[in-house]
UniProtKB/TrEMBL annotation:
Keyword Isomerase: yes
UniProt KW Isomerase keyword: yes
Name of the featured protein: Beta-phosphoglucomutase
Top enzyme class: isomerase
Entry similarity comment: Belongs to the HAD-like hydrolase superfamily. CbbY/CbbZ/Gph/YieH family.
Listed GO MF terms: beta-phosphoglucomutase activity
Keywords: Isomerase
EC nos: 5.4.2.6
One Pfam assignment: Hydrolase
Species for this entry: Planktothricoides raciborskii FACHB-1370
Classification via Gene3D superfamilies: HAD superfamily/HAD-like (3.40.50.1000), Putative phosphatase, domain 2 (1.10.150.240)
The organism's place on the tree of life at top rank: Bacteria
């Protein structure tokens, strides 16, 4: 169930391929983590909800959707809306939220890998394609270790390695540099609107996971990675020519 949008084709032209007959050479796949590799979105929701309840801030699942892909700090600022609070209090809230979240992480293991992820990682290794994770999460190393996939990931970066968080392209550009690849040699797999925007701005190929109203700007849109093979993704990108 893959499709490419016109916008995707326009974007492809902007990738400046030397010859229109040249097939894209994808040498690396950069994954977002939360919502792509593992469903920590639910843990983030529950811990934000707990914090919001304690502080009397209105919050629900719908509001949580707006936080997908944002850094912890940007998420809190969005939750607070017009409320003005001191930096010290902001820091205390961020630390408290993370304490709750770390408790969830302790319970994670490879069962929390989303369907299709492990198989895809194995296929990428077999095909000699480099792999990276570029996440907005400061906990990315911890989560990757709990999931037991560290041996199949070449580079792990988060937005704290760079100046600007997603939707700025920085974290993807940085990951590509660390992999020793050009942006157009990288395929990003993302579930958040801010992440899709970031990857497109970086000049990379993008697979969006989720509903079209959230990830429709991506070159390829899929519900998730279940049953998705590397050969399928490669063919889909090459058919965008
Ligand atoms: C991901 C999630 C966000 C989360 C952010 C920060 O991008 O999609 O919902 O707020 O990471 O995670 P952290 O582990 O640093 O609190
Ligand atoms: Mg995500």
């Amino acid at each position: 169930m893959m499709y490419s949008s016109n916008l995707a084709k326009e974007h492809k032209n902007s990738l400046n391929l030397e010859e229109s007959s040249t097939l894209p050479q994808i040498r690396g796949v950069i994954f977002d983590m939360d919502g792509v590799i593992t469903d920590t979105i639910e843990y983030h929701y529950q811990t934000w909800q707990q914090l919001a309840d304690e502080e009397g801030i209105p919050f629900n699942r719908e509001a949580n959707e707006e936080l997908r892909g944002l850094s912890r700090r940007d998420s809190l600022i969005k939750m607070l809306g017009d409320r003005e609070i001191f930096e010290e209090k902001i820091q205390e809230l961020l630390d408290r939220k993370n304490r709750y979240y770390l408790e969830f992480i302790q319970t994670m293991n490879s069962d929390q890998l989303l369907p299709g992820v492990e198989n895809l990682l194995n296929e990428l290794r077999a095909a000699n394609i480099k792999t990276g994770i570029a996440s907005a999460s400061q906990n990315v190393h911890r989560v990757v270790d709990r999931l037991g996939i560290r041996d199949r990931i070449d580079v792990i970066t988060n937005v704290y390695n760079v100046n600007r968080p997603k939707p700025a392209p920085d974290v993807f550009v940085y990951a590509a540099e660390e992999l020793g690849l050009l942006p157009r040699e990288c395929l990003v797999i993302e579930d958040a609107e801010s992440g899709i925007e970031a990857a497109l701005a970086a000049g990379m190929w993008v697979v969006g996971l989720g509903p079209g109203d959230r990830v429709g700007q991506a070159h390829i849109v899929l519900p998730n990675l279940e049953g998705v093979h590397w050969s399928d993704l490669l063919l889909a990108i090459q058919s965008l020519r």
